[in-house]
Design the sequence.
C-alpha cells in the first residue's frame, strides 16, 4: 500500500463549466506541499472536490488515498478515513457548540466497542486550545457564529488538531490572520508534521511558508499545475508575480 | 457532564408502528349520527345530562363550518363519515397490569409504559382506542384525596367535583372540533388535587390508537384546588395505516387560587393522523398554568394551547416545539387571555420545518381594556432545513392601554447544504448533522423539561431526521 494522496489527471466541473483540467499531484506522507496561483484558478475547487462536495462533478481522473479510491466514498467516509479540509470560508453552525461539534466528529470515528471518555476529551481539547491561544470560553460558543475571520481560522486548526487527519488540505488558512496568529496557527500545523501526516497548503503569501516550510511549491494556472519546485519557488513568485512565472 | 440513562424511554418512531388484531366487543360502527351517540351513552351507562350534553354538541358540530378561511387546506380531507367513533373490548380499567387483556398489555409493554411507571411516575392511565385499560395511582395520593380516573368513571363517581367545570373552560361551541369531542368523547383523565396537596411525581396518561380508520376523542379535566400542585404528562402513538386516523381531544385545566398545573405533551403520531386538539387552562389569582407541548409527527396538527388569566397575578406559559417533516403540517401556537391586573404570559415557540414540511405559528395575546401591570412575552424561533421548507408566523396582539410590558421576538435560521457539507467533512453523517443542528436549536428549551422527557424528545428527533435525508 502506498502511503500517499495521489491525484491523477483529475478533471472537475461545476455545473457545465470545467474548472480542473487533468490535474495531477502526489502528496506522500511526511511531505508538505504548497499550492499557489491567481484567484479563480481552481485551488479551492481541488480541495472541495477531494473532500466530496456534492456540487463539484468529477468528469475524469482519479484520487487515491493510500491506494484506495477516494472518489467512491461519501464526504463523511473520506473524513473518517483521515482526510481533513480547512475551509477558506468556514461555515457558521447555529446552536452547535464547538465542544459538542468536535465531540460528535470524534464519536463518528469510533469503532464498534470503542469507548469515548468525556474527561480525556476535555483535557485534550483544552490543551490544544491553550496551544492555539484560544480562550476556553469558546468551547461553549456556537461554532463559528459571530467569530472574527482570524478566530474562524484558528477554530479550523483546532478541529484539525483534534481530529488528527492523515492528510490535510488547508485552504488559505493564513488569510485574515494577524502576525501572531499566523505564527500560532503555523505551530499547530507543524505539531502534526511527521511521517504519518501529509498536507497541501493553499496560500497566496510566501510569508506563511516562512513558518510552515514546504517541501514542494506548485503554481497553478487555469485548472492545472504549471510549475513546481522547492521552497525557493515561492520567493521567486513574490518577486516576479504569476506573470513572470508563466513566462519563465 | 451528565449523560442521562435513556434505556427506559426508547419510544422511537418505529417502535410505535405496530398493531394487534383485537376483537372489539363494542363498536359504534362507521360514521356519526344521533345513533352513534346513543350507543356510546348506553355502553357507558351515562347519566341523562351527559347524554343531552352529547346530543346538543352533535347539533353544534353539524352546524359549524370548518375554519376554511384560515386553517390549512388539508383539514377538508378529514372524512367524518368514514371514521369509527367508538371501539372498546369492554374492558374496565384495571389496577393491575396482570388483569389487562393480553394484546393490550403487550402493546403497552412494547411502548415501555409499565417500566416508566415503576421508574418515575405517581400514577398512570393507559388508554387503548376509546377506553382506558389500566389506571393506577400511588396509594398515598388516594389517601390525600387526589382523584385520578377516566372521564366515564369520574363523571359517574364524582359529579359534584367535575360537573361544575366540565365544558366550562372550553365551551362546546368553541370550535367545530371541541363540539365533535363533546359529542363523542371517551376516555381521557379526570384529576382533582385537593387544597394544598402537592403531587411531587408526575401523573401520566398514554394514548394509544390501535385500530384503523378510528377516531380517538379523549377528554381531560384537571382541577387543582387552592394551593395545589400537579404535573401531568401525556404520550401518544399510533401505527402507520393506509387510511387516516383522527385524534381530537379536549383538555381543560383549572388552577384555583395559588395552584400550579404543568401539562406536558410529547406527541409522536404516525403520518396518517389528523391531530386537532383544543387545550385551555383557567388560572385564578396567583395561579400558574404551564403547557409544554412537543409536536412530532402526524399528517396535520392544529393545536393552540391557551391560558385564561382570570385572577390577579396569574401566570400562563406555553413552551412548544414543533417538527414538521416532509408531508406534514404543524399549525400550532398559543393563546393568552389576560382578564385581570398584573397577569403575566410567556410564550416560547420553536418550530422546525424539514423538506416540504410546514410549521406555522399562530398566536393570540389579548388584554382586556382597562387592565394594568400586565406582562406578555412571545418568542418564536423557526429553523428551516433545506430550501423547500417554509414557515409562517401569525402573532395577533390585541392590547389596549399602555400600562403593560409587551414584547415579541421572532427569528428564522436555516441549515443549508453548505453547512451540512461542512459537518460531513468532519466525519459527521448527514443524519447526525441534521440532528445536531436541530438539537442545538431546541436544546435550551428542552433543558427545562423533566429529564425523562427531554431525553425522549431528543431520541424522537433523531429518528425523525433519519427519515428525512435523501
Ligand atoms: N459553486 C460555484 N458555482 C459556480 N462557480 C463556481 C463555484 N465555485 C467556484 N466557482 C468558480 O470556479 C472557479 C474556480 O474557483 P476556486 O474557488 O476554485 O478558485 P481559487 O483558486 O480557490 O481562488 P481564490 O484564490 O480566489 O480562492 C472560479 O471562476 C469560481 O468563480
Ligand atoms: Mg480559494
Sequence:
Amino acid at each position: 500500500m502506498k502511503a500517499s494522496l495521489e491525484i491523477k489527471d483529475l478533471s472537475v466541473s461545476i455545473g457545465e463549466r470545467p474548472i480542473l483540467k487533468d490535474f495531477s499531484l502526489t502528496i506522500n506522507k511526511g511531505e508538505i506541499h504548497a499550492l499557489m496561483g491567481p484567484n479563480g484558478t481552481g485551488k479551492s475547487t481541488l480541495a472541495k472536490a477531494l473532500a466530496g462536495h456534492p456540487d463539484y462533478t468529477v468528469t475524469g481522473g482519479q484520487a487515491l488515498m493510500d491506494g484506495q479510491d477516494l472518489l467512491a466514498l461519501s464526504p463523511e467516509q473520506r473524513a473518517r478515513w483521515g482526510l481533513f479540509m480547512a475551509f477558506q470560508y468556514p461555515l457558521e453552525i447555529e446552536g452547535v457548540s464547538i465542544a459538542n461539534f468536535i465531540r460528535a466528529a470524534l464519536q463518528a470515528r469510533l469503532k464498534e466497542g470503542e469507548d469515548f471518555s468525556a474527561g480525556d476529551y476535555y483535557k485534550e481539547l483544552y490543551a490544544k486550545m491553550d496551544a492555539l491561544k484560544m480562550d476556553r470560553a469558546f468551547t461553549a460558543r456556537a461554532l463559528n457564529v459571530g467569530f472574527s475571520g482570524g478566530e474562524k481560522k484558528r477554530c479550523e486548526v483546532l478541529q484539525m488538531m483534534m481530529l488528527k487527519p492523515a492528510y490535510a488540505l488547508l485552504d488559505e488558512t493564513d488569510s485574515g490572520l494577524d502576525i501572531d496568529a499566523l505564527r500560532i496557527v503555523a505551530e499547530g500545523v507543524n505539531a502534526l508534521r511527521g511521517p504519518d501526516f501529509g498536507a497541501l497548503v493553499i496560500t497566496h503569501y510566501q510569508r506563511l511558508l516562512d513558518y510552515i516550510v514546504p517541501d514542494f511549491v506548485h503554481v497553478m494556472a487555469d485548472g492545472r499545475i504549471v510549475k513546481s519546485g522547492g521552497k525557493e519557488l515561492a520567493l521567486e513568485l513574490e518577486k516576479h508575480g504569476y506573470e513572470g512565472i508563466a513566462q519563465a | 457532564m451528565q449523560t442521562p440513562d435513556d434505556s427506559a424511554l426508547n419510544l422511537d418512531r418505529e417502535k410505535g408502528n405496530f398493531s394487534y388484531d383485537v376483537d372489539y366487543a363494542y363498536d359504534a360502527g362507521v360514521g356519526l349520527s344521533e345513533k352513534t351517540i346513543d350507543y356510546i351513552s348506553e355502553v357507558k351507562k351515562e347519566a341523562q345530562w351527559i347524554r343531552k350534553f352529547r346530543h346538543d354538541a352533535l347539533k353544534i358540530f353539524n352546524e359549524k363550518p370548518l375554519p376554511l378561511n384560515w386553517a390549512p387546506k388539508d383539514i377538508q380531507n378529514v372524512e367524518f363519515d368514514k371514521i369509527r367513533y367508538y371501539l372498546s373490548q369492554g374492558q374496565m380499567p384495571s389496577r393491575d397490569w396482570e388483569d389487562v387483556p393480553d394484546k393490550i398489555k403487550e402493546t403497552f409493554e412494547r411502548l415501555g409504559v409499565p417500566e416508566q411507571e415503576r421508574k418515575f411516575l405517581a400514577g398512570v392511565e393507559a388508554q387503548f382506542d376509546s377506553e382506558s385499560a389500566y389506571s393506577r395511582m400511588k396509594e398515598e395520593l388516594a389517601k390525600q384525596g387526589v382523584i385520578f380516573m377516566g372521564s366515564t368513571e369520574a363523571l359517574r363517581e364524582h359529579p359534584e367535583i367535575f360537573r361544575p367545570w366540565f365544558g366550562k373552560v372550553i365551551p362546546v361551541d368553541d370550535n367545530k372540533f371541541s363540539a365533535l369531542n363533546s359529542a363523542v368523547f371517551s376516555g381521557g383523565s379526570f384529576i382533582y388535587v385537593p387544597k394544598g396537596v402537592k403531587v411531587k411525581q408526575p401523573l401520566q396518561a398514554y394514548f394509544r390508537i390501535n385500530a384503523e380508520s378510528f377516531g380517538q376523542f379523549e377528554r381531560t379535566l384537571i382541577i387543582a384546588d387552592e394551593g395545589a400542585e400537579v404535573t401531568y404528562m401525556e404520550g401518544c402513538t399510533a401505527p402507520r395505516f393506509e387510511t387516516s386516523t383522527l385524534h381530537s381531544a379536549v383538555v381543560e385545566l383549572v388552577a384555583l387560587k395559588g395552584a400550579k398545573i404543568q401539562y406536558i405533551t410529547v406527541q409522536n403520531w404516525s403520518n396518517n393522523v389528523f391531530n386537532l386538539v383544543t387545550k385551555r387552562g383557567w388560572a385564578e389569582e396567583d395561579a400558574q398554568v404551564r403547557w409544554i407541548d412537543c409536536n412530532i409527527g402526524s399528517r396535520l396538527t392544529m393545536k393552540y394551547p391557551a391560558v385564561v388569566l382570570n385572577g390577579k397575578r396569574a401566570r400562563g406559559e406555553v413552551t412548544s416545539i414543533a417538527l414538521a417533516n416532509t408531508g406534514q403540517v404543524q399549525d400550532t401556537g398559543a393563546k393568552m387571555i389576560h382578564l385581570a391586573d398584573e397577569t403575566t404570559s410567556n410564550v416560547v415557540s420553536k418550530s422546525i420545518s424539514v423538506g416540504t414540511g410546514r410549521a406555522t405559528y399562530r398566536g393570540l395575546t389579548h388584554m382586556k381594556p382597562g387592565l394594568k401591570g400586565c406582562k406578555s412575552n412571545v418568542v418564536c424561533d423557526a429553523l428551516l432545513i433545506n430550501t423547500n421548507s417554509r414557515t409562517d408566523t401569525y402573532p395577533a396582539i390585541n392590547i389596549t392601554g399602555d400600562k403593560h410590558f409587551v414584547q415579541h421576538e421572532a427569528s428564522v435560521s436555516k441549515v443549508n447544504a453548505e453547512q451540512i457539507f461542512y459537518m460531513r467533512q468532519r466525519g459527521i453523517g448527514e443524519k447526525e448533522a441534521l440532528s445536531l443542528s436541530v438539537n442545538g436549536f431546541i436544546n435550551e428549551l428542552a433543558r427545562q423539561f423533566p429529564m425523562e422527557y427531554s431525553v425522549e424528545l431528543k431520541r424522537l428527533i433523531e429518528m425523525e431526521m433519519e427519515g428525512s435525508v435523501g
Observations:
- The two ends of chain B are 34 Å apart (CA to CA).
- The first strand of chain B starts at residue 26 and ends at 27.
- Chain B touches chain A through 24 residues (CB under 8 Å).
- Chain B is about 25% helix and 35% strand.
